Amino acid sequence: MEDGRLRPSPTTSRIPAIFRRHPVSWTLGLGALLLMGGLILRTLLPASASGVALETRDVVRTLVLVGRVRPPSRARVGATVAGTVERVLVREGDLVGRGDVLVTLDDREARAAVAQARASLAEVTAQAKATVEQAQNEADQAERDLQRSLSVFKKGALTQQLVEQAQQRADDARSRLEAARAQAGGGRNATIVRAQAALEAGRARLDLTRVVAPADGVVLTRDVEPGDAVQPGRTFLDLALDGPTELVVFPSEENLGQLHVGAPATASADAYPDSTFQARVSLVAPSVDPSQGTVEVRLAVDAPPRYLRPEMTVSVNIEAGRRDHASVLPESVVRGLGTDSPWVAVVRDGRLTRQPVDIGLRTDRYVEILAGVARGQLVVPPQDSPALGEKVRVHAAPGG
Questions:
Q1: CATH, residue 235
Q2: Distance from CA of residue 84 to its chain's centroid?
Q3: What is the pLDDT of residues 225-260, one digit of tens each?
Q4: What pLDDT, in 10s, does the model give residues 108-162?
Q5: CA distances from 238 to 187, 228, 309 (A)
Q6: Of 62, 11, 44, which Cα lies nearest the Cα of 266?
Q7: For residue 149, how many C-alpha atoms fall within 13 Å in the half-sphere facing its CB?
């Protein structure tokens, strides 16, 4: 500072005067030049993107369905005669065997009818026996008379005519005896036949007062108590009969092409989610439910766990397709899935290009690639993808 005035420093004196007069304008201009240079450089240089290559995996396509444990067969048991319930011998959950008595009705009237029919049969049988005994006595007497007549005839004290009459009486007596015996046998005696039929009917009616299990099984529901008045046809016990354990599911009809008898499956009961067991498709119904658009599928369980119960809810994973050592890509990199023209983005001649692909099995993570992508060729995922046609420099994604 000389003479009290400030003089410019050496550094300041080297900046052109125009910069010193308009610093803001020159700063903005310089920024614009740098931005334009960056855009030009970006246009000239290719973009960078990560890519993934085909890998070899065993792929399994599964159908995840919810179904139930299907009782092999069910029997709805009820009375076939009117009556009053006397005893109920089972409750829900009880195991029963074929022929076990489940419910008894008041059988006093039926027993009285059986006793009456038995007495009637005994009476007519006794009458038939008495008739035979009488015929036997008459035949024996006629035979003795004949023998005496022949003895006297030989001594010349009796005429031939009297002997012939004695012979005729003996023959008639034997005929009556044979007829009585035949009728006493029951086959020709209408009275005995009717009495036997009445006794059988009474016994059958008495049997109907006892409701028995038609086969081995378990009681599912009980809707009867002692003292209830029941009518023919009323169902009061529901039984699940023993037999092979089956599961039933109802996939939509669009999955029919993926289902076949013998397909393996893994299942678990919702009540025991940590425990799984194996099953296999045993039946694909030949028709579709038009109201629901579903098809019934049954699965056999060869070694069912002990905790399974009829109508229990189960989750079932059916193996709908399997390919070992398949060439796959992550599902996220294949575009147009669900359409007729799936494709992937690959680099060809330095630019990002659309490449159609043929796909096979699909899982929740991978897609089998049948054709369109070469081994080692990198595919650009959508999230890292520049626009189609742009210059791209692709490198393998970490871990890809």
A1: 2.40.50.100
A2: 38
A3: 999 999 998 889 999 888 888 999 999 998 888 899
A4: 988 999 999 889 888 887 777 777 778 788 888 888 888 888 888 787 777 788 8
A5: 43, 17, 14
A6: 62
A7: 18
Residue 6 domain flag = no
Residue 132 phi/psi, 5-degree rounding, is -65, -45
Dihedral sign for Cα atoms in the order 366, 369, 375, 378: negative
Reported as a pLDDT band with limits 50, 70 and 90, residue 46 is confident
- Report the run of H or E that residue 9 belongs to, with start and end: none
Give pTM, 2 decimals: 0.51
Residue with tokens 């939509």: 252
Nearest to 311, CA basis, from 366, 265, 271, 284: 271
Residue 83, CA atoms < 13 Å, CB-side half-sphere:
23
- Whole-angstrom Cα Rg for the chain: 51
Tell me which residue has tokens 């069912």: 304
* Number of structural domains the chain divides into: 4
3-state SS class at 239: strand
Closest CA to 332 of 362, 355, 290, 305: 362
Residues 171 and 112 in one domain: yes
Rounded to an integer, what distance in angstroms lies between the CA atom of residue 84 and that of residue 209? 9
**198 pLDDT higher than 50:** yes
Q: Cα–Cα distances in Å, from 34 out to 23, 26, 29, 30?
A: 17, 12, 9, 6
Record the tokens describing residue 343, joined without a space. Answer: 């494709």
